[in-house]
Write a structure and sequence with these properties.
The complex is a heterodimer. By secondary structure, chain A is of the alpha/beta class. Chain A folds into two domains: 8-227, Rossmann fold, CATH 3.40.50.300; 233-299, YebC, transcriptional regulation domain (Alpha-Beta Plaits, 2-Layer Sandwich). Chain A has helices at residues 47-54, 76-82, 98-108, 113-126, 142-153, 172-189, 200-206, 224-231, 246-253, 278-287, 302-310; strands spanning 8-16, 22-31, 36-40, 62-67, 70-71, 83-86, 160-164, 192-197, 209-214, 217-222, 235-240, 257-260, 267-271, 292-298. In chain A, helix 3 (98-108) packs across helix 4 and helix 8 (224-231) crosses helix 11. Chain A starts with 7 loop residues before the first strand and ends in a 19-residue tail after the last helix. By secondary structure, chain B is mostly helical. Chain B has ten helices and no strands. The longest helix of chain B is centred in the N-terminal third of the chain and has 31 residues, at 66-96. The two termini of chain B are 34 Å apart. The chains are: A alpha/beta, B mainly alpha. The A-B interface holds A 52, 55-59, 77-78, 80-81, 83, 85, 87, 89, 91-93, 95-96, 100, 103-112, 115, 152, 156-157 and B 1-6, 10-12, 14-15, 17-19, 21-22, 25-26, 29-30, 96-98, 100-108, 260-263.
Amino acid sequence: MSAADEGITAEDLVREFRNGPRAVDGISLAVEPGEIYGFLGPNGAGKSTTVHILTTLLPPTSGKATVGGFDVVDQGPAVRGVIGAALQEAALDPHLTAREHMRLQTALQGLPHAERVSRGDELIERVGLEEAADRKVGGYSGGMKRRLDLALALVHWPRVLFLDEPTTGLDPQSRSALWEEVERLSGEEGVTVFLTTQYLEEADHLANRVGIIDAGRIVAEGTPAELKSEIGRPSVVVAPSDPGRLEDTAAVLERFGKSLPAEKGTVEVRLDRGVDELGAIVRELDAAGIGLASLVLNEPTLDDVFLAKTGHHLEGEALPGEDDSGDDE
Amino acid sequence: MIKTTEAGPTRYLSAALGVAWRYLHNLYSRPSMFIPSLVFPLFFLAAFAGGLSVVGDAPSFDYYDFTAFQFCFILIQASTLAGVFAGFSIAGDFEMGMGRRIMLATRRRSSIVLGYGIGAASRLIVTWTIVTGVALAGGMQIAGGGFDLAGIYGIALLSNVAALLFSAGIALRFRSLSAGPLMQLPVFIILFLAPVYVPKELLTGWIEPVATVNPITALLNAARSLMAGEPTGVLTAYLVVFGLIALMGFWAIRGLRQAEQAG
């Protein structure tokens, strides 16, 4: 079974909005059946627009995509039959209870009457909402809404699940519970999961493979380990105790590797020969008479990958001299 | 675990009934939505049939009962506005995000419009019962038979469908409650440019030619003739209302396609 048969494929997907930017600018990807694919990028990168195209909510301006083996433009109804989606804003009716939402969703998905109540109850139990099942959703917390949204996306046993920033705004406990459920769906039920996130930890923890998107384009793709190994070497961040010696510090450190954009008052370099150089760095700084406020060794993260590929950090932390020009989706 | 959903046509109907169920559930569980939609026609019935009853005594007014004369208008007006109110719900759903959930979950999206249509038509049962009950309590005389009455309610039902399709077309294009006046105002205007208070023959001035070409006039005249037990122009009225449904159906489906394009 391949991505084209059961998973997700996209070829040169483009979406232009009238009088607006190219929200999606030539995205190509392939997600294998049963895989958890993390789509990582900052706000406004084009993640949600891509999800909207793949879930048939929005037609592409050009390009081609298939989900579960069906073309998203020509076979929209068939695509909707095999997907479940929990989008960024949990679209719930505040006047309905969780059980009533289940009643609505099972009807919309055309479940046989005899199965509707049992399927709804099963999913409510699975996401831990039994106690609140008969309360109106308007009074739910953000985490409860997210869990109900996930349960609703699963009523018709979808083969492909789209989760658009599913843990944004959740407390750590709710986030961890949702991660467990996503891992169970992929591991035990073989559901293909397309997960967008702006959290590095989430992509690192959950995704089998990660696509990094910036300004509508995929700038890197691979397993988290592969991506980090592309960067390969750790970096060292040094803050001199005398801020006036910052340039001297940089001059010393640049002998050991390439300089990276760093926070104010610090110097960061990617080490050419890895951690082995740490002793030499300390000795050289000492020899130059530079006192240290701090010295931190950083193993590569997905943020480093993002930084290396795009020139800026992922989570909106604009570096000195950089402009945060991310537009909202 | 059985991993099946219903086959095509059953699933289509299931989705439409799901949309209709939610519409009616929210309508009847929220008095703030339901009561105004009932008060509206009752107010008009009281104002027109009660306050203007002296019009029925005019020498040239030859209809047998002024309350029955007004009732036909109120029935069509209430049914039509019930269709418009369903359009408000569609717009509200898109504004709050539920429209997206429904668009994602239904295979054939025309079932969404059908669902709201079923909901809007179903709510008429309550509206008709109350309006008819109040009119009868107010002394309305029904001269026509059961078949004639069925003809009147048939016209009212089809008016509801046409209005729902019109307002759905607006709602799906704008996907915002701010489009409410665009749904309500044209329907209000076309209703009141028909012969509301007196037969068309008694209209004078600019309103007379306007009422002549107003499709609502054909519906009103047919309903009043059925109420009087002397059916005239009934076939024309049905042709007119089916024509409106075809036109508005096209308008609504085009609106749905626009909503799909907008995402």
